[in-house]
Amino acid sequence: MEKLRKIPVWVSYTFFFAVIIAVYWWTFHLTNRSLIWSLDGIAQHYPILVNFRNLLTHFLTHPSQGLTHWSFNIGLGADQLTSFSYYVVGDLFNYLIVFFPKNQIELGYSVLVLLRLYCAGLAFLFYLNCFRFRKFSRLISTLTYTFSSFALYAGMHHAFFLLPLISFPLLAAGIERVLRHRSWFPLFLAVLITFLSNFYFAYMLGLGCLVYVSLRFLMLSKTPGFKWFHSLLQLTGTVVLGILAAAVLFIPTMLYAFQSTRLTGAFANGYWFYPPNYYFNLPSKILGLGGPFSFWLIIGMSGISFYAVVYVFTHFKRYRFVAISLLLIGIGILFPAVSSTFNALASPSNRWLALALLPLGLATAIFADHMTRLTRRDLLSMGISTVILIFLLWGSRGFLLRLQRHDVVEYLLLFALLALFWIAKDYHWRPRTIYLSVLGIVTINLMALGLGYYSPNNSGFTKGMLATKDAAAYNQHYYDGANHYVKQRLGNYRTSIGPRYHYFPDDRNNSLNTDYFNASSNAPMNLGTHDIASYLTVENGYVGNLERAVRNNQFTPNDPVAQNDYRSTLSALMGVKYLFIRSEKAHHSLPAGFQIVRDHKNEPLLFSQQNPMLPPDQQRGTVLAENRNALPLMYNQTRAIAPATWNRLNPVEKEQALLAGTVVDSTKIKPAKLRPTAKSLSYTTHLDQDDWITTPKQLAESQWTKPDATFSVHHPTQQQLDQVLTANQQRQTALQQQNRQGLHELKTDVWGKHQPVTIKIKRPQTTKRTELYLELEGIQASGPSATEQHQIEKNLALVRNQPLTGMNHLNEWRKNLQTAENGSFKLVAKTKGMSNAVTQLGTDELSNYVPKHSALLNLGYSNKARSKITLTYQGVDQIKFKRARVIAVPMKQNYTQRIRQLQKQRLRNIQQTPNQITGISNQSQATVLTTSIPYSTGWQLRVNNRPVATKRVNDGFVGGIIPAGKHRVTLQYHTPGLLIGSILTMISGILVLGISLVTWIIFKRKHA
What we know:
Structural class: alpha+beta
Shape: globular
Radius of gyration: 32 Å
Largest sheet: 5 strands, antiparallel
């Protein structure tokens, strides 16, 4: 035993880490699952890591060319340094991926996840060394910190979310050393690592450190010899030096982030308080997984940490500041404003709870230090708290003790731990026996916690992880092999994917499964297809402005372009040459100018490599559509549109105006003559009489209202039935009256059934060879009130011959405790050949919540007439509109002529090198250089090697004024802020070296 006591804690931690991880690994092995999440893991993180490895290997072989550049493989084009800074560039662990072969990147991804998790424990252990805890206490608390629910969930879904678990203990340890008049260098390194790794985490950790320093200052204020001003000055200076040292990456990243598409909207998504079900689910969240996952609320502590919290609060005076920090965390969980503040004033995400693990781990170490000296009062407090927890859990579930399967084990282990302490107290166990017993239970507890998340016998999380080796195959076969054909013919043009080319019906079927939906993915960035879409946390804000101006229905902050809603002109303007289409979708309407690529037998050219992630109905293969209307990457426009004129146009007119002229602030170019081409079509609205049940005969023939034979003695009277049918008739009549002069309202019937509405176009012939749009203004959606919902239940029970008993009311009440109305809905518009949808994500959506008060739905291009549009909806019981217009945009001879003229005005001999694009302009008059290259202040325009003012054109792209004649045009790119950031980093390095040298000289003189 004496030899065991001499083993360093980090060695013991490493052993137990390996044992627990081995259990987790065995579970993943048995289920043939990887550590890559099937949503953002494969769509964002894995492709970016693959791309980053390519950057690193290229840099190692060609260091003179630099590490990052402007890349046309990231959507429309983006700076690799700033685009990847959120994910990989500042994460030092990712640089280790170069040691894994190209065919083993999936293994490297998993190893790096586990390495981050392991280092999180080491960082916390380093922090605990600032205090005098027993080795056992440090081991136990480090294990609970490492294998917390937050780490197990976040680390497996977003690997870099483990970084705060590493950085915060390092920052806190650095602060402790400064406060104790020891070396400031650990804090400097911690700040440097934090500000390099991720700007979002730097913000969140900065707030956490402010709270930490405030509490520590209060705690030390009465300590003899504590000089608060000197400590504050040293802390501030060290932090500033650390930030300056990281400026080479931090400044360019922040300049980019401040002009990105990230939308805050209403503070905390408009919440003053969370929905009631959030609070009712809180008790179940304390241990294990518990309840639905919402607002990123992850607590799930182990049993020993729960009792540690109880112990700290019952000894409040002694551990006042630890208890206060835990109390502040508890209060912060209750208010969306706190979560929103920590989430950069955006949505109310509880990701900040990563910071809560530090005081929780500290409390666990305190409790472990005293577990052999627990009093009867301590044990009684622990027992009472357990009873209170069970009671709260029971009450919050509507007085039904319903636990998720794996949470039962968590509570059994909690009881086992409590029983152990009682027995140890009564039978006077030796400390060694207590330590070994507690260590055993805690280890089993942490194993069970992880198995609860990722064993298919306990939860559904394992289904969300990709099967082993699927990641590489998914990326390699993303286009079923069609990318090889396209790359040989693409040149400087771009591509996109067709309707529902990649989507996940199992996950998205109920909310987003319309013809135009695709799952966002970064896989194309590694395949050289120049896909116009990218899926990044920070996207180019100028492009986002353009997409909002033309009201791209697919716009989200993480994917502002997507497929441009398949609008013909937007596709042409952005140079989309090829469309990858699932072969079974080839019959759907294509944007104007696109034609299916055919083989020598005049059959659609089929590429049939199978992608392992696609569902069976998408396994036939890929066909291609080629666009004759794609505009070149760089061309000249002879006419200009003043920004003020542009801003007065409606979204459809704005899109079409870009063919007549370029939006630019210049008086040197003649103004364009804008002639409206879009036409607003007259229509009438109709309700399907067969869907509205208003007569006894319709009720008798209806399948969904068939009476329940088990309640034959409770037949409703004819009077009761007539009352319900009359109410439905009145609602139908009122709805028809409301929509008599255009679409203004959609509403369910008295049974809560969503009734479709048909828009009938008065002159269908006007839709030939046009692109059809449905424009909706002033959208207001609402769900049923509690009274209305109760009336719906009564009406349903009546026609189904089911008595509405007190138990029915009680169960309905219980159901309402666990659910909440979040305002989400989907409105689908369908016409011949295509459907599209307005999808309003709920206020509990934390990344892409954007309130939709208006929408512009592209219903596709067609050579044939279309006479009607059918509207269906779900999610709410009523949607109102101030105005609804059907718009037809002719794409006939005049449209084609404008396209051909712009194609002729392209720049010749376009060549691309890293950070530079050149071409030859030869026009008889001054023109506007118009591109589809996303605008950045880093672009510099040169004409015949002479600097020319760079302009932002068409709201989102780079361009400029080119004089008449033949000229060599060059666009050069330099990352904004990189130069000043490099200078500040060098200044910081000089200061650090100077301060270190002076400190060393002073130290040598004192000890000479």
